[in-house]
Amino acid sequence: MILIVPLKNKLKILLLVFRRALFSVLLLGTLLSLCCCTQTVRSYSSQWPDAAIDSLNSDKNSEKKLDDLSVEQLIFRGNAVLAKGNEGLARIYYAMAINKSPDSAAALTGAGNIFFRNGAFKPATQAYERALEKVSDYSPAMLALARVHRVQGNYSEAIEILSAALTIDEQNVEVLTELAMGYDNTGRAEMAEPLYRQVVSLQPQSASCYNNLGFNLMLQGDYPEAISVLSRSLKIEPDNVHAQNNLAIAYALSGNEERAIRLFTSAADKAIAYNNIGYLLMETGEWNRAEHAFKSALELNPRFYVRAQNNLDQLNRMKLAN
């Protein structure tokens, strides 16, 4: 059985794949990949914090120094070093805090954040749920647990948690943004838009907030306003590559390929830019324009022949099948 996806829904799916990320400068075949940083995955004991406490016992001097700190100080230091990427030291601070105060929702959430950063979603979920058992309305744990659900594709669970969190703090920018993303990912972009606009009103000087709103407007097909909002994002932060590439997409979808190419070529050569444009147009049904873009890529850079030619071949097969 062949599932036919309506063009508008297919465009939304395609854009969600590119969500707030760069176009890859390397298109392998017909797959347009995301450029992202891969975190090193470490192995942590699922018996947190017991294993971490045991590891501290091997260094009595370090334990003695940390033992002089209060739970609040340990958590503060854990959050600070984790923000700087020092997961090992953060782990020690959170473990000591939990050892001193097993009911500390903040320390349990911090421990969960380390698991989450390393893709260990099960122990992260356990840590967040344990934090919420201690303090049922602890917003940071609710937000963190919702993120775990979102990255695993459990959007309905994430939305339920975030909706509850929003009743606790109606102006929490992170909760508002996560909830809006949940609506976007479940095909309810129109419900996400007022949330993104609220975030922009709360943080009017944030380029990323305008970028998120602009992306949402693209999902709804409002390209002129998306272009306006994304341009505002770049005015605030001219080097914001995410907004720059989203703006290029908006121009391409609105029919202004020339502007799109200029924006894409700042991160890649012109042949790659034309190939990216061609792929986007092919997936949205603009086959004649897509063919022109692929041929332009081939003319500009013969060494790019394999990727662009493969895309052009697929386009021809799609035309014949139609």
General description of the model:
This protein has a domain at 1-32 and 205-322: Tetratricopeptide repeat domain (Serine Threonine Protein Phosphatase 5, Tetratricopeptide repeat). It is 71% helix and 1% strand. The protein contains 18 helices and two strands. The chain has a two-stranded antiparallel sheet with strand order 1-2. Helix 8 (139-151) runs antiparallel to helix 9 (155-168), helix 12 packs parallel to helix 14 and helix 14 (241-254) runs antiparallel to helix 15 (257-264).
List keywords for this structure.
single chain; 322 residues; mainly alpha; Serine Threonine Protein Phosphatase 5, Tetratricopeptide repeat; two-stranded antiparallel ribbon; 1% strand; elongated; disordered N terminus
Briefly summarize what is shown.
The protein has 322 residues and is mainly alpha-helical.
If you compute it from the alpha carbons, what radius of gyration comes out, rounded to the nearest whole angstrom? 23 Å
The chain-level mean pLDDT equals: 80
What does the main sheet amount to?
2 strands, antiparallel
Q: Given the helix and strand composition, which structural class is it?
A: mainly alpha
> What shape does the CA trace take?
elongated
Strand content: under 5%
The CATH H-level superfamily of one domain is: Tetratricopeptide repeat domain
- The CATH architecture term of one domain is Alpha Horseshoe
Low-confidence segments: 1-7, 20-61
Counting copies of identical and different chains, the oligomeric state is single chain
Q: What is the number of strand segments? A: 2
Name the CATH class of one domain: Mainly Alpha
CATH topology of one domain: Serine Threonine Protein Phosphatase 5, Tetratricopeptide repeat
Strand adjacency order, main sheet: 1-2
Distance between the termini: 17 Å
Note the run of SSEs as H and E: HEEHHHHHHHHHHHHHHHHH
